[in-house]
Amino acid sequence: MWLLRSLIKLWDAGLKRDPRVVRYGESVERMSSQEFEEGKQWLSDTFFLIRCENDCLPNIDWVLSLAKAAVLRHGVNGLVIDPYNELDHQRPSSQTETEYVSQMLTKIKRFAQHHSCHVWFVAHPRQLHHWVGGPPNLYDISGSAHFINKCDNGIVIHRNRDPSAGPVDQVQVCVRKVRNKVSGTIGDAFLSYDRVTGEFMDIDEHPRKG
Which ranges carry the SF4 helicase domain (predicted)? Predict the structure, then answer.
């Protein structure tokens, strides 16, 4: 949330200097300059970004090699790979996509186990030809059913975009798989998304309008 608030503050400062641009979220309380600097420092101390600065596409081996260095040098205990379709997925002609995805997910799971590091792998659903507006399931991820077969926890995040189906700021968190039953259960939760601040809140905590 610090990052989102920081970007909003920075954007708002730019709007103040340019009278031609209509201000966004004018009534929202802004952070102070001190809070902004503290937020940037917290981000710098807490997160380490892995980027490919040249024109080539990184593959999963490249990502995991740098992630291993981050674990050993900085004590990182969580890795977010986002998104799946931005990686290079070239494979031998003799290897099917299903075999490739299985091998890739095995590498990620071994990395997590060997380095005691949580890994969140973000993947998007394939184009759904008969989509009716509801949340997709884990089998809809582009690539292979191994995404649900090999994951320890499978979570679908879905935001309603149909005003006739409910509030468009409502976000549905669908827990579709939990391998270790001690850590949680399958079910749904609903959050409210504030477009101005970028915050997600429990439905009953969202300030009522009117």
Answer: 1-207
> Taking a C-beta distance cutoff of 8 angstroms, is the pair 170, 193 a contact?
yes
Q: pLDDT tens for residues 154-198?
A: 999 988 777 887 788 889 999 999 999 888 899 999 998 887 778
Tokens at residue 53, please?
């600065």
Average pLDDT score, the chain: 82
At residue 159's C-alpha, the angle toward residues 154 and 162, to 5°, is 140
Two structure tokens written together for 100: 């490739």
pTM of the predicted model as reported, rounded to 2 decimal places: 0.75
> From start to end of the chain, where are the E strands?
78-81, 118-121, 153-159, 170-178, 187-193, 200-202
- 38 confidence band (pLDDT: 50, 70, 90): very high
Asked if 141 and 147 count as a contact pair (C-beta separation under 8 A), the reply is yes
- Tokens (6 digits) for 43: 């981000």
How wide is the angle at C-alpha 141 spanned by C-alphas 137 and 145, nearest 5°?
90
Query: Phi-psi region for residue 121, left (φ > 0), alpha (ψ -120 to 50) or beta?
Result: beta
